[in-house]
Amino acid sequence: MNGSVDAPTPSPHYPSTPSPAFTRGATPWFGLRLRPGNSLIGARRAVWTKAQLLSGQHLKSGDEAVEPRQLKPGEARQPQEVYHYLVFDPDMVPTAGDALVRQYQREESDRAKLWIRNTVKARWTEPEVDLALAVSDLIDAHEQRYSEERQAALAQTQCPASVWPHPPTTEPGPSLALQEKVKASLEAASGSFQRLKLLMDSWCALFFWPLDEVAALPSREDFLEAAQLLLGPHPQPVSQGAEGADRINLEPETSNLAPLNIKQFRLNFDGAELLRATAADALDAEVLGNAVPWYRVSREIATKAQFNHWELAFPEVLGQQATQSAGFDLILGNPPWLKVTWADASLLCDFEPLLGVKSARSAVFNKERTKILNRQQNLQEYLCSQRISLGNIAFLNNHKLYKVLRGSQTNLYRNFVVTAWKILGPNRFGGLLHTEGSYDDPNGGLFRLSYYPRLVYHYHFKKELKLFDDVHDQAEFSINVFSRDQSNVYFEQIVNLYHLTTITSSRSHTDPCQPVPGLKTDDGAWNIQGHRDRLVEINGDSLKIFHSLVEDSSKPICSARLLKLHVRQLVEVIDKINNSQKWLPLLEGKYFATELFHESNDQRSGIITRFDNPSFQPNLTRQMIVSGPHFYVGTPLNRTARKNVNIEMLTMKLI
């Protein structure tokens, strides 16, 4: 991609002619607008109050969990608020609580647990909170400085290229060489960016901490004191324009070396070396790592993990400046539909390929795992992969970071939805493709309670026409358009869609007397014809009707599971059904349900065994375990196993 386009030099192939001259034009360049990284794991502009820290509210979990207040784009931090990434979290170093890790690293695991108990969960003191407030003041100053540096870089690299239907511009704009030079030097030469990123990375890295480095875990006082020295005194804003304003003046700090020398007796890092590492804008990585051990480990982890701190990466959109930061105008995406879990089967198959060739089951993996991990190289690779996976799980399931996901099984797309809410501007829109689990998960009420007021359109698809090659034929997903939080629930829903054209034809349909198309045509093809009655309006009244049918009275109405109604008239039908007598509610407290055997867990524990190719053929009823496909609504005998295929439909006439 070129920053500009030049006219060709005259040659035999390009002779000089009286034809119109070729005009040099600008080529769009997005170098400073694009950023790689992990969109879901990073520090945020979220804050705890001094009162919350002193009372220990930040340590509560489960239903009592309290989320730090998320600052909106353009909103400044209040004087008695501390940035959340200065406060340790009990979910950090998750490998310390893993039973398998403990078999191989018992001593390190005990030390990590001791750190969590004595440091993370220790009650904050007034001096500690005051120190955190002072560090937060420095963070604000560095955020302001880097925001100004980035604004200057954006202005210097701004491309004048126009977009249709605006007329083309003849202004060439900056060269590609200049744009790339500015991009390469902006973050590398910005002392404020480097310092803030290191501090944020250090906090995130504690979720992925290797037990081999347990000795480098910082105390609260060390972490805050090192942060204060790292950030130094207030940086001089670029906007002041004074000579040498592109440097951070360290004179006030170096004049306070006497108090620093006294602190050295109790601090577990080299403060003098830390000052030397931060003497210039560009941090001296080697000196920094030698001075502060947790900064060394954090940099190693962050290099691989690529944490993304949204407000630091895009301060002109999400920062503290009310005059310029208003959030993103539009967010579009197709996030991964993956559950956040740790499963070692694929890794064990890499170590022992025969397990994969033979399609080994859980019980076999349990038997072979210890033998495989007896090899030191396998063990090191296994523990590293597990540490990264458990770190992701701990972060993405953290109730203080993703509170609305509490109670439900975390799926990456849900984390993306929550992240999009936080970075979206007011009166702006986001659109994501994701599965339907959010709307029918019995434990997802808290998520729906926050999603419904934001939702504008919900279009449910069945992938029968194979719109995506990499999605299973039977997969169901939806297009979901949302905005910032609204006061009332009101969104449009269409279900059983097979093609996008059904949406537009339903919205333009005008004949109410025409029959509503079914799922298939008379010829047996999937029906993509639209109809106005396919548009179902979901509001508070609709959810109240759904709630009375599928939820119990203890749950909020606006957390009700969403019913897939093919036509709008079915809302009235369900309302009439609700008015009839219900029998199960009358028996409440007189019955309970159990899962009996857990298909995966009980295979791991050896209670049940699964046979495939050929399938197990029981001779006695006590040899058979009844599972979902064997029975159906009003059909106690629905499917059965056969030797070469998993299941087949039963023909009642042959029984």
Provide the helix percentage: 25-40%
Major pleated sheet: 6 strands, mixed
Query: How many DSSP helices?
Result: 25
- The number of E-state strands comes to 13
Tell me the strand percentage band. Answer: 5-15%
Our count of domains comes out at: 4
* Order of strands across the main sheet: 6-7-9-8-10-11
What low-confidence regions span 5 or more consecutive residues with pLDDT below 50? 1-8, 242-262
Q: Could you tell me how far the N terminus lies from the C terminus, measured between alpha carbons in angstroms? A: 70 Å
Quaternary status: single chain
CA radius of gyration is 30 Å
Shape: globular
Mean pLDDT over the residues: 85
Based on secondary structure, the structural category is alpha+beta
Structure description:
- This protein is of the alpha+beta class and 655 residues long.
- The protein folds into four domains: 46-324, no CATH class; 345-396, no CATH class; 403-579, no CATH class; 611-655, no CATH class.
- The chain has helices at 50-55, 99-104, 106-120, 126-156, 176-189, 191-205, 220-231, 251-254, 257-263, 271-277, 285-291, 293-305, 310-313, 315-318, 345-351, 353-357, 362-373, 376-396, 412-423, 437-440, 445-451, 501-508, 540-550, 570-578, 601-604; strands at residues 4-5, 25-26, 46-49, 69-70, 81-83, 328-333, 424-435, 455-462, 476-483, 490-497, 536-539, 639-640, 648-649.
- The chain has a six-stranded mixed β-sheet. A three-stranded antiparallel β-sheet has the order 4-3-5. A two-stranded antiparallel ribbon has the order 1-2.
- Helix 4 packs antiparallel against helix 5, helix 6 (191-205) crosses helix 12 and helix 11 (285-291) packs across helix 12.
